[in-house]
Structures are given as C-alpha cells and as structure tokens.
Amino acid sequence: MLEIEIDGKKLTVPQGSTVMDAAHSVGTYIPHFCYHKKLSIAANCRMCLVEVEKAPKPLPACATPVTDGMKVHTHSDMAKKAQAGVMEFLLINHPLDCPICDQGGECQLQDLAVGYGNSASRYQEEKRVVVGKDMGPLVSAEEMSRCIHCTRCVRFTEEIGGFQEIGMANRSEFSEILPFLGKTVDSEISGNVIDLCPVGALTSKPFRYSTRAWELSRRKSVSPHDGLGANLIVQVKGNQVMRVLPLENEDINECWIADRDRFSYEGLNSAERLQKPMIKHDGKWHEADWQTALEYVVKGLNGVSRDHGKDAIGVLASPHSTTEELFMVQKLARSFGVNNVDYRLRRSDFRADAAQQGALWLGSSIVELASAKSVLVVGSTQRQEQPLLASRLRQAVKKGSELNVIHVADDALLTKLNAKLIVSPQALVNALAQVLKAVVAIKSGESAIDLAAVTVSADAQRIADSLCGAETASVVLGNVAQHHPAFSELLSLAQEIARLSGARFGVLAEAANSVGAELVGAVPTRGVFGAAVSAGLNAQQMIAEPRKAYVLLNTEVEFDSYNPQAAVAAMKSAETVIALTAFKAEGLLDYADVLLPIAPFSETAGSFVNMEGRLQTFNGVVRPQGEARPAWKVLRVLGNMLGLSGFEYTSVEEVRAEWQGKGEIAPSLNNVLASVSANVQPAASALVRVGEVPLYQADAICRRASSLQATRAAAVPVAHAAQSVLDAAGVQSGAVVVLKQGEGQVRVALEADAALPAGVVRLATAHPTTIVLGGMFDPIEIKQG
Amino acid sequence: MLSAQSLALIDREVAKYPADQKRSAVMGALRIALEERRSTGETPEARCLNQEVIEFVANYLEIPPVAAYEVATFYNMYDMKPVGKYKITVCTNLPCALSGGVNAAEYISGKLGIAIGETSTDGMYTLLEGECMGACGDAPVLLVNNHSMCSFMTPEAIDKKLAELK
C-alpha cells in the first residue's frame, strides 16, 4: 500500500494505482477526456494535468503511477494554469457549433470549457475542417471537425469490441478518426462509442436531431432482448421513448449495452404497433373495442373446450414476456383446465423434462463465469446470442482465462481460444462425450454414460485438461445446444463433466426471461417453483399434434419456433388462434383470428429473471400506445370473464407478490438432472441445417427496429457450407441454389465457408426469407437452382 | 496481390518477432509492398500504396486493416498519393538551407518544370520537400525513391543526377 496526499487529503492506495484512481477513491474530480476506467490509458488529451510536488512539470493524472509519499495538488495555480492551457488548445480547432450540435447539453467538452476555459478565444486563424465519415446506420460520424482525438472510440473497438474497426489516420493536425476506407463499423456493440465520445463527433444516427438532451426524462429499465438483462436508462419525451442508454451495473453489463439493447427502441414506435383489438370476420380484419374482442376470445375458448375438450387448447408464450405475464398466462390456462403451456418454442428436445429438478440457469453468476479460469462454451453463437457476454469472456481471456469452444461453426470470437472442436450438429454429442471421456480418465472417475465407443481427440483432451487443471471452471450450453435435437444428452454430458471436474455448469438463457418462465411454471411439466401439475403437451407436441385453439402470448410462431413450417401449418389448421401481441405482424394477420394489443416492456411494469437468476423489476416508462394494455391486465380480465376465481389483482405488485409468495428463486435454480443419458455415437451423416437466429431477429421488438435492420448483420441471409458440400452438390460458390426442408424451399446463394464442418448447410432461421423452411437443425436438401 | 518474392521478404520481417506479434512487422511489410509497387508500377497511381494493398498486408499479418492504414498514413515515406517513377525528396531544413538546400530544390523545380509537391505530366518525376536526413555535413542532400541518398547536390551534381534518372 502506498501513501498519497491529494489536495491535503491523506489516503493509502494499492501498488500500481494511478493518481486518477486515487483521486476518484476520495471523490476528487480531475477533468479528463481520454481517460476511461474500462479502457487502456492513452494520456493524449492532457486535460488531467495536475501538480505533483517535486516534479518540475505538471503530470497527467491518468498515466502517473502513485509513488509513496506523493503529494498531489489538483487545484493549485500550476495545475489550473496547465488545465486552462490544455483547454485553450483543445478549443482551437473545435467548431463553435454547440447550438446545432447533437451533443449539446451532455457534452464533456462543453461542461469542462465552462469550468476551465476562457470566455473568448485568442485564436484568430482558420480552424481545420475534417470531412464526415460513414460508419454505418447506427453511428453518425458526420461532424468530425468536432473530434478532439481522445481515441476512446479506437480503444473501445480494439479492446472491448475485440477488433479495431476505427483508427486514427495521418498525424499531427491532419489526424482523423475513421473506419477503414469503405468499411462501416459492424461490431455488435458499436453503439457504445456514442456514449464514449466526449464531444459531438460520434452521435447516434437514429436519435440525432430528434430532441435535446435536457428535454428528456431518464427512467430505469431492463433490456428485454437477451438473457443477460442489461440495465437500461430509457429516455422519454412526450410519452415516447426517444433513446436508450446503459445504466451501469458492474455485475451484469458493466457500463456497456449491446446495439440490440440500444437501438431496438425504434421498434417500440414502429408503424406496425397494434393500437386496437382486431377480429377477423370472413377473412377480413376489423377493429373492435376491448369488450367485443374479449367476449369473442371467451366465446372461442369456451366453444373449443365444449366441442373438443380442454386438451384441444394450446398456450404458447414468449420468454421475452415479463415474469408476471408468464405467471398469469400459466395460471389462467391451468385454472381453465388447460395443461398445454410452454415457453420453449425453439426447443426441439424435451427428454430432460422428466429428470429436471429445477429451473435451468447459468449455474453461477455472470461475474463468476467471467472470472472462471477455464470456460467451455458448447453450441453458442456467442456474439449473436449475448453480445456483451462474448465481450466479457474476451476480457476474461485477456486476464488469463482459458476459453474452450465446442460448436457447429468456427465463428470469429475475436479472442484467443485454448482449444476448439468444430463439428456438425450430429456429432456435437460425440464431441462433448470426448471431453467427458478425457475428464473421466484424468480424474479416474466413473460416469453413468457409456463412453466405450468414444475416441478422444487431441482437442478434446486439451479441453479436459483445461477444465480439470483450472481452479475454477464453467461449462455452459449456448442457444445452439439448447435448440439442438439432443439437448438433453448435451445437458447430461455437461452435468457429468462438471461433476467429475468440479466445474460449474449451466445454460446461457436464450431470452430475457427464460429463467423466469421456468420459475413461474410456464412449462407443461412443472408449476410455479416446481409445484406438481398435471402434465400437458410441450411446445413441440402442441405443434406436431395440432390443437384446435392456440393462445399466443407475445409470440410470432413463424419467427419464434424451432420448425416455423410446422408451426405455421398448425396455426392455420386451428379453429381459432388468439394472439396477445404488441405488433400487427404479417404472420399473425394471416393465421390468427383475434389480436389483442398488449404493452411491450417499456409500457408495463414487470420483471425479468436473468440467466444468473437475478430478479430485476422495472416500471413502465411511457403510457401504452393506443388502446394497448399490459398483458397481465388482459389476462386478469380474461380470467374474470371465463368465470375463474383468483383473478382479482389490482396491480402488478399483487401478481408479483403472489408468485414470489410461492417459493424462493435461489433454491429453485437447479441444472442437475435426476438421471443422465446420452447416445454418444454420431448420427448418420445426412446433410443438416445449422439455422441460428440472426442477431437482430431475436425478438419482436428488434425485428422492427429500422436502423438495426439496415445493418450488415441484418442483411438477407445467404447459405454457407464447406467446400466439400458444394462439390458434392456440384455447385460453385455464390451460385443460387434451392434449399429444401419438408414441403418448403427457398432460393438463396450458397457460398463456400471454411469455418463450417462437412455435412452442414448454414442458413439463418427466423428471417422473413427463410420461414418457409423447417427445423433449425434438421436435414436439408440442396437442389440446383 | 504481391509477388512471391515480396511475400518471402515479408515473411523474413515477420520472423524477426515472436509468432503472436506479427503486428510488429507492419512497417517492414508496408515498405516491401510499396517497393514492389514502385518498381513494377507503370503509372503514378500504380506506384503508391492503395486501399487494396494495405488491406492485403493487414490480412497477411492478421491485423485489422485500419491498424495498417494508421501506420501507412502516419509515416510520410509511405506514398499514399500517386508518385512519379523518380521521387526526389530534397532536404530543406535549416543546415541544408544554409548550404544551398532551398536553392537545390528550386533548381530542380525549374529544371523539371514542376513545383514542390508536384508530379511531372509524363509521370517520371515527383519533387518533394523533406525533413532532416541526418547528413547535414553533406548538405545539400536529396533522396531518390526513399532509398538512395545523394550528397553535395550542387547544380552541376543535380544535372548529372537527373541525367542518370531517365
């Protein structure tokens, strides 16, 4: 520990601290631009100059390590003069366009110029002019003359984003911040450079010129897009969400948010929002009032249950719904006598249900995962599923963690991998079994799974060595593993590996509230907190054995299902489809019979349980649009109208109190299966599809965010396959082919991709151009175009 | 994009650094790439570094293209603008200027009919001002094509040199 005195305040700081760290720890503010606690030290703005006794010149606080007995003055004459001098230089070339600058009112340069600058400039000469740059549809770099060259954006893309997409070209007064010529900034977390930019050089393209920072009110919320549950500040003006910023939470999102969290708000204000209840009569849609629509729903449900029995009704809910909505929907269904409730629309393997003993979750906190010395990620398109978690693992690798990957494609994770096994979906179970077999050998343990047929490859051995050798280790299953037709086997194997190696294991929750949905019993086999229920059909069975009526909560089955082809067919064959939705979706208009407008997360109070089992509550930030109502209220009124008891809630807090009163979250999280089993032989080698959900198709809101949809990540998907697949099909890379699954087929370009294993065609699911196809990991045929 | 010979030279540069620090070879690699383009380029545009070459070098070294671009634009001996077959850089810093460096530049300018910073219309010569080349005792000095240093460049010596550069 070192002793230091800052402005007369004595304190001790650990070895290696900088003067800036020390000053922050006692609440002394030192002005700065280039310094950022999460980025490397650049010391190029010079704004943080302070006087250090015995040093002849002022020193930059951000880059000066504390030495024992150091005496620092941040407000002495020397320090003030140095800071004022730096400010004068920074303002020499900075345009005086604050009145038309989007950053005005929340600009660090503006603020510090008031504190440290002069009221007039002595500079008489011409100011430099820098032409604007094109960084893509999210980040605007139109006014680069404003740039003060702090290089925060450059360091962010390199250090946090993992790939330097922005650079500083030229030198001295010709320096310019730019992306590589002709390239845009495509990082999935690129929007953070807008927050980092201390001036108005990088601004938000969708937001700019729409309002002034001081006209906005700040409301806390939680991201509904992925299982991380990033904390948000939603900024609101005149009952409209204008922009979304991160709310710092070191345990979850640090000070970042992904572009999906930041720019999805455009979807909330989209023209596709459903404003009034709608009923289909003779193939035509008519607006209706709530009373008529609800009576229609009640009549429909009663009719189907009278004619075909309660079992003829299926309830499919989106895990992007709030915990209260999911609780209400399962309560409504079960009170009415319907046991077919499920949120797992994209799941294709439900064999683990019987052995499951609790809600599936991450198996540790996010911080614990990121600090584990060895991590094995199985079947995860990490950068699409949880962009911030991928970034966090990247930071972990820099700090010495070993990252291992078993996946169906060799995606660029922009970090160093300890070992990887890239296999086709059909060999995924075998790959994980190899690791288990190696772990069994290392630990001289025994496994209940028969591993005789498994041959351990060198990479599997490396993974096992890494897991067993590390002090703390984690095995996590990503979305690909969870949607995989052998999920239960993968979970069994992960459980065995974890048991023998002492690692933690869990799943990377797919959606904002997957864990919440598990907890409140939005599954056919378990009730609230695992209470026993009479089992119903799961999502797959409800589609495979079509029901006569479906209730869809926040769900568009063509985008949200494992097999959109079968799901849409099931919807079309039903007598009635009742959709509670925030959007007038094309698919719903086609197969639904009544649309009830519900409020998205920004317009209702609720809660999400993130992947680490953390309950995060939030309030609505604006009033519901049009006649939309919070789904819990709609479900409550439906309960009343169906004559069910226990639906007398007057507030969302009452709903929350009821489900919370039935159990505790922490003890209900449990990944351990009562019995494990896996067939470790690779399946027959048919050509199979790898159909992941694209980054900006994950949920109903981001699908309608126009700026996100203009990014390269949201481009119309093309198919990819290994060269051997192309050769076998006799097509050239880039040729248009017909891909066929079941009755559906699409014409797409097929490109060679060395990152894919043999026997695989990769084509994204959940995209309007591919929804006619079948299962995400099912066989697929290539035909000449 | 680059010849096998150039790639072999780049590999030699890469081999000077640890395997996980290929980035360190970026200056050498850009120099080699530029040298190949200068010696084989037919037009001024083909003799300088361009986006494709920089991206190629970056990919070859497995670094982000913009990182290589930063380096290429930072150092002024990497030609980013079209350049003549002979790039003549005359030192005009103080010691050279006192010994006739400015005169040398003006003399060449008059002789070739191009101003400092320009390329002759036939694409043969580019005349540039340079900073100290560390040979003040030999003033005035000039540099031909980055690599060949010419000392004591009196008007006679310049005439002789230009006669060689045809």
Question: Mind explaining what this structure looks like?
Answer:
The complex is a heterodimer of chains A (785) and B (166). By secondary structure, chain A is an alpha/beta fold. Among the domains of chain A are: 278-348 and 518-662, Rossmann fold; 366-507, 3-Layer(aba) Sandwich (Dimethylsulfoxide Reductase, domain 2), CATH 3.40.228; 688-784, Barwin-like endoglucanases (Beta Barrel). Chain A has 26 helices and 33 strands. In chain A, the strands form eight sheets. In chain A, strands 15-14-25-24-23-16-17 form a seven-stranded mixed β-sheet. In chain A, strands 28-32-29-31-30-33 form a six-stranded mixed β-sheet. In chain A, strands 2-1-5-3-4 form a five-stranded mixed β-sheet, with helices on both faces. In chain A, α13 crosses α14 and α13 runs parallel beside α16 (487-501). Chain B is 45% helix and 11% strand. Chain B has helices spanning 4-14, 26-40, 51-61, 65-74, 94-98, 101-112, 155-164, and strands spanning 86-91, 125-130, 142-144, 148-150. The model of chain B has no long low-confidence stretch (mean pLDDT 93). Chain A binds chain B through residues 158, 163-171, 178-183, and chain B through 51, 55, 64-67, 69-70, 73-74. Chain B: InterPro entries: NuoE-like (IPR002023), NuoE_dom (IPR042128), NuoE_N (IPR041921), Thioredoxin-like_sf (IPR036249). Chain B: This is NADH-quinone oxidoreductase, E subunit. Chain B: [2Fe-2S] cluster binds at residues 91, 96, 132, 136.
Q: Outline the biggest β-sheet of chain B.
A: 4 strands, mixed
Q: What structural category characterises the helix and strand content of chain B?
A: alpha+beta
Oligomer: heterodimer
Number of strands of chain A: 33
Instruction: Please mark out the parts of chain A with pLDDT under 50 across 5 or more consecutive residues, or reply none.
Output: none
- CATH architectural category of the largest domain in chain B: 3-Layer(aba) Sandwich
Number of H- or I-type helical stretches of chain B: 7
What would CATH call the homologous superfamily of the largest domain in chain B? Glutaredoxin
Q: Summarize the biggest pleated sheet of chain A.
A: 7 strands, mixed
β content of chain A, as a range? 15-25%
Task: Please state roughly what percent of the residues of chain B sit in beta strands, choosing from under 5%, 5-15%, 15-25%, 25-35%, 35-45% or over 45%.
Answer: 5-15%
CATH architecture of the domain at 278-348 and 518-662 in chain A: 3-Layer(aba) Sandwich
Q: What is the CA-based Rg of chain A, rounded?
A: 28 Å
Number of domains of chain B: 2
Residue runs with pLDDT of under 50 for 5 or more positions of chain B: none
Structural class of chain A: alpha/beta
What is the CATH T-level topology of the largest domain in chain B? Answer: Glutaredoxin
The top level CATH class name of the largest domain in chain B? Alpha Beta
- Report mean pLDDT of chain A, rounded to a whole number: 95
